[in-house]
């Protein structure tokens, strides 16, 4: 007979802002840590990315993930240990969530929104990878006034070279 006690928990996990460049990797890492602790995930969402109140390990901004899960009570210590050993997770906080109504837990479901955000960020990366060009116009060898009192001519003379254009690529 299995007499293992389980409870409902709410976990807040903080990742550095660099995790926004590859959200899927951060999600996979967090889910891997949770699965190693025999956790059953009920609800997983990206809570927010915001400025931290104080710098933590050189990070001024962070990405928060909110997770509701069922877990054996004895595995919470193991979960905390694994999160502290992780180089990707900056901070974590786990509390019992049995006082939270199921309506609130269900309202915090963010898997679809998170999938949409990952898709949009992936599209932005591919757009940035394409070559974009812009034309910059500048005059080369334009005469500069010798003194501050001299005024620049209002119109260019016909003997001057026309403005040259250069193509600049943005990466």
Which stretches are low in confidence, meaning pLDDT under 50 for 5 or more residues running?
A: 131-142
CATH architect. name of the domain at 6-109: 2-Layer Sandwich
Please give the number of β-strands.
6
Shape assignment: globular
List the total number of helices: 4
* Secondary-structure element pattern, one letter each: EHEEHEHHEE
Share of residues in strands: 35-45%
CATH class of the domain at 6-109: Alpha Beta
Output mean pLDDT: 78
**CATH H-level superfamily title of the domain at 6-109:** Ribosomal protein S6/Translation elongation factor EF1B
The strand order across the widest sheet is: 2-3-1-4
Structural class: alpha+beta
Radius of gyration from CA coordinates? 28 Å
Helix content: 25-40%
Explain what the structure shows:
The protein has 171 residues and is of the alpha+beta class. It has a domain at 6-109: Alpha-Beta Plaits (2-Layer Sandwich). Helix content is 29%, strand content 36%. The strands form two sheets. Strands 2-3-1-4 form a four-stranded antiparallel beta sheet. A hairpin with a 2-residue loop joins β2 and β3 (59-72). It is globular, with a radius of gyration of 28 Å. The N and C termini lie far apart (62 Å). Residues 131-142 have low confidence and may be disordered.
């Amino acid at each position: 007979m299995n007499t293992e006690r389980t409870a409902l928990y709410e976990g807040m996990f903080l990742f550095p802002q660099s995790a926004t460049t590859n959200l899927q990797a951060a999600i996979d890492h967090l889910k891997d840590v949770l699965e190693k602790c025999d956790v059953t995930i009920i609800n997983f969402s990206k809570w927010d990315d915001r400025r931290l109140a104080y710098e933590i390990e050189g990070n001024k901004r962070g990405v928060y993930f909110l997770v509701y899960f069922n877990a054996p009570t004895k595995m919470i210590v193991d979960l905390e240990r694994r999160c502290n050993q992780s180089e990707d997770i900056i901070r974590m906080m786990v509390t019992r969530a049995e006082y939270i109504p199921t309506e609130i837990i269900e309202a915090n479901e963010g898997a679809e929104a998170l999938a949409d955000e990952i898709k949009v960020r992936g599209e932005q990366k591919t757009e940035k990878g394409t070559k974009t060009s812009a034309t910059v116009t500048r005059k080369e060898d334009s005469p500069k006034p010798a003194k501050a009192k001299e005024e620049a001519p209002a119109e260019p003379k016909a003997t001057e070279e026309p403005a040259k254009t250069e193509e600049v690529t943005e990466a």
